[in-house]
Structures are given as structure tokens and as C-alpha cells.
Design goal:
- The structure is a single chain.
- The chain has 3 domains: 83 residues, Cysteine Rich Protein (Ribbon); 71 residues, Serine Threonine Protein Phosphatase 5, Tetratricopeptide repeat (Alpha Horseshoe), CATH 1.25.40; 102 residues.
- It is 67% helix and 5% strand.
- The protein contains 14 helices and 7 strands.
- A hairpin with a 2-residue loop joins strand 6 and strand 7.
- The chain is rod-shaped.
């Protein structure tokens, strides 16, 4: 039978198994003497360091005594080879592994959502900074990014609407504030004032449209210029003002001015309507002077306008406008829409009714 290691107690001098000794402030003691020393140290409120003795020949797990053979350490504890292998080959239970996987998935999900909120916050900060510096158009993409996450935030929606309005985009501005509940604070008052400014300009534009319908071209153009001045961020008002100026020039027979205005309009807003207007202006100059170079410009521009048709409304407008344009080019007669309709379309309608 292996002989266990013993040490002598420094107080009572008794022989004690190493595993049953205690080290109190550097002294090796048996359990009764160790208890006495601890009480004395606590009463004196002095230093107290205590740890149990360890026999390097006894396995901490199975308590087997290996006599004179010192056991290797594992995580600071003496352990035999059998217990060492069982510890190293330990397998976590299935439920614990499943729980660990679930926790990891939750961690990844929380980090993903946290990142999206972080990105949205950064985007909002950049958009607000650009808006405050006067660059509303540059701020729009950042607010759109922030709205992907903070769609229900009145602060984000309100500032996004301001950016839309100040960059001449009223439709998305109305959409982004729809359903939002705002506090009566500085943001709300600023937003309300901006919407009011837009509404006043839009009202003038509507009045211009009515005047145009009454063939009051000069008054219509003046009212549209007022709308453009009231809300210069909206390019549409300026474009329509130029169109109405061109109508005034047409009614006055000033075809050179009509071309100049239409060329300016094409440069600012190169689309179907500006191309069709420029083709008509060139056709008037050709009809009044017979310059074949201008005729070719008119036909080329009209062909360009046809390629730019992108909606049902534009298609209907082109179908109405093309016969009048062709008549102007072929006959060199400059007829208004009403004059053309009176000569050709009403006559055609009468014939169809007779049939």
C-alpha cells in the first residue's frame, strides 16, 4: 500500500497528511491550528492569506494516492493519466451545443440589426448636415437611406420632406410625411412654412393654366413667372414659363424669339415636350422664310421628339401634333391648333358623320 506524504504542523508539531494541511500566511498548519491562526489574524485585522495544501502524489479527481510518484499538473491541479484523458476527451451534451448555436445565431442577428441602425444614423447625420448647409439635393439620398430603417420617425421624415421640397420634389415630400404625427416644434413649423410656400407657388401655376386656356398668353406667362420666382427650386415652373413666353412670341409672329426660347428650354430640360416645341419653332421660321437648312433642323428635331415619347399622354400629344407640324412644313402655312382643327379635323368629323 502506498505511503501518503506527511508534513509537520509548525505550531503543534504533529504529523499531518499533506492533503489535510493549510498554509496560513506562509505557515504550514494542521486544521485545528490553522483555524486558531485565522481567528487571531481576523481579530488583529492583519494580513490573511490561506490556501489548502496539495499533495502532488494524490489525484485531485479520483483521490488515488500514487505514493512517491508526483502527478503532472492540469490547469494547476495534480491529476492521474486516466482522469486526465477523461477530462480532455469530455464532450458537451447535445442540448448545450444546440443552445450555443442558437445563442450565436441571436448574436449575429442582433449585430446585423444594430449595424442597420448604425448605418441609418450615419446617413441621417450626413443628410441633416447637407440640408443645414443649403445642399438639399445632396441631402436627399442620405435621408432616403435613413428612411429604410427609420420610416416611422417624425424627425427623419420631416427633414427628408424638407430636403425633397427644397430640391424641387414636392410629390415625394407629401408621401414621406403622410401618416406622420409631428410635435408642434421648430421642425414642424419650418416644414409647414415650406409646404405653404410651395402651395402658394402651385396656386399661381394653376392660375396660369386657366389663363392659357382662355388664350390670354401674356397674362399666363406672367403668372407662371411669378410661380417660378416664388419657388425657384421647382424647375417645372421655369420650364412652363419659357413655354408660355414662346406662345406669346408665336402669337406676335416673333418666330426668332420663339426659336431662342425653345433652344433654351431644350438645353434646360431635354425631353419630348421641349423637343416638340423646338421643332415647331424651327417650322415657323422655315414657313416664314423658306430656309431649307432650318427646314432640315425642324424635321430632325421632330424625329428626335418621336424617340423621346415615354408615356401615354406624350403619345397622344405627338399624334395630335405631328399632322399639324407636317402641314406647316409642306404648305409653309402657320396655323394655330384651332385654325387647323377648323379646316381639317372638323371637316373630317362631318364626313364621318355623313357616312
Amino acid at each position: 500500500m502506498p505511503r501518503m506524504r506527511h508534513l509537520e504542523c509548525s505550531d503543534c508539531r504533529s504529523s499531518v497528511r499533506v492533503a489535510n494541511t493549510f498554509n496560513v500566511n506562509g505557515e504550514v498548519l494542521c486544521e485545528p491550528c490553522a483555524d486558531k491562526k485565522v481567528v487571531e489574524a481576523q481579530k488583529a485585522k492583519g494580513k490573511l492569506v490561506v490556501f489548502r495544501g496539495k499533495d502532488p502524489t494524490i489525484c485531485f479527481k479520483c483521490s488515488t494516492d500514487f505514493g512517491a510518484q508526483e502527478l503532472p499538473l492540469l490547469a494547476g491541479l495534480h491529476v492521474c493519466e486516466t482522469c486526465r484523458q477523461s477530462i480532455l476527451d469530455f464532450h458537451y451534451p447535445a442540448w448545450l451545443r444546440t443552445a450555443a448555436v442558437a445563442l450565436l445565431a441571436l448574436l449575429v442577428l442582433s449585430l446585423f440589426h444594430g449595424r442597420s441602425y448604425f448605418v441609418a444614423g450615419q446617413a441621417y447625420y450626413k443628410g441633416k448636415k447637407l440640408l443645414d448647409s443649403g445642399n438639399a439635393q445632396g441631402a436627399v439620398p442620405y435621408f432616403e437611406e435613413a428612411l429604410k430603417v427609420a420610416v416611422n420617425s417624425p424627425e427623419v421624415a420631416g427633414n427628408a420632406a424638407l430636403a425633397y421640397l427644397k430640391s424641387g420634389q414636392p410629390d415625394p415630400a407629401y408621401k414621406v410625411v403622410k401618416g406622420q404625427s409631428f410635435k408642434n416644434d421648430d421642425l414642424y413649423r419650418t416644414l409647414t412654412a415650406e409646404f405653404d410656400r410651395w402651395d402658394r407657388a402651385a396656386t399661381k401655376a394653376d392660375e396660369a393654366g386657366k389663363l392659357y386656356g382662355e388664350s390670354k398668353y401674356k397674362e399666363a406667362a406672367q403668372r407662371m413667372h411669378e410661380a417660378a420666382s416664388a419657388y425657384p427650386a421647382f424647375l417645372g415652373f421655369e420650364v412652363q414659363a419659357t413655354v408660355l413666353d414662346s406662345s406669346v412670341a408665336f402669337s406676335n409672329g416673333d418666330y426668332a424669339t420663339m426659336v431662342r426660347l425653345s433652344e433654351t428650354l431644350w438645353t434646360k430640360d431635354p425631353g419630348y415636350y421641349s423637343a416638340a416645341a423646338l421643332a415647331g419653332a424651327y417650322a415657323c421660321v422655315y414657313a416664314s422664310g423658306g430656309d431649307e437648312t432650318v427646314k432640315q433642323k425642324a424635321m430632325d428635331t421632330m424625329a428626335k421628339a418621336k424617340t423621346l415619347v415615354s408615356s401615354k399622354e406624350q403619345q397622344e400629344d405627338f399624334q395630335e401634333w405631328e399632322p399639324r407640324f407636317s402641314h406647316r412644313i409642306q404648305t409653309r402655312q402657320i396655323l394655330t391648333r384651332d385654325q387647323y382643327d377648323a379646316l381639317f379635323r372638323r371637316e373630317k368629323k362631318t364626313q364621318e358623320e355623313r357616312q
